[in-house]
Design a protein that fits this description.
The protein is built from eight helices and eight strands; from the N terminus they run βαβαβαβαβαβαβαβα. It has a four-stranded parallel β-sheet with strand order 2-1-3-4, sandwiched between helices. The protein has helices at residues 14-23, 50-67, 84-90, 98-106, 122-132, 155-171, 189-196, 203-217, and strands spanning 4-9, 34-39, 71-76, 95-97, 113-117, 139-144, 177-180, 200-201. Helix 6 packs across helix 7 (189-196). By secondary structure, it is α/β, with parallel strands linked by helices.
Length: 219
Amino acid sequence: MNRTLFVINPNSSPTVTAGIDRALDPLRTAEGPAIACVTLAEGPPGIESQRDVDGVAAPLLRRIEALRGEAAGFVVACFSDPGLHAAREATDRPVLGIMEGGLLTALTLGQRVGIVAILDRSIPRHRRAVGAMGLNDRLAGDRALGLGVGDLADAPRTLARMVEVGRALKERDGADVLVMGCAGMAGYRAELAAAVGLPVVEPVQAAAGMALARVRLGW
């Protein structure tokens, strides 16, 4: 296959993009399509509010338009799925959002899903999306780390908080599968799963896997 699956980080952090790129290594194959991770330079350092979500939609669509001729498909690598439905109108290539892909994958791994959010103000956005997907009855809980996107690079602090929140979702809320609620958490999946004793979905991997399946199968 000579086209590329573009995974677009809608914030302007190269550090987040590099973490996403490493997380996708297990999905890279000689048969392709190639996977390229790109940073949206026009985006904020982290997408942490509804204003941030709304603000990146237009530049995200412009980037998709610019890449359309080279693309096998696209993944929008932000857990708020900014511009997702508009992007699907803008191209005939598959476009996957990581919140949608992460939650759908989690439903195959457990009955009660827990979301590990970054900030308390992320939770209302998550709740709206979960409701729109008709999944309220499958959501065990949504708990925040209290850390912004930029803070996630502090590995010891981030992992400690993720383990604390993950255990609360398991023991207090009854979650039997967790979804990490930010692409910036990509490097912590295995350690979190081992510490909490639950399956943990890294949503960029989930959405990229779905996109690759669609490209290879012609869906």
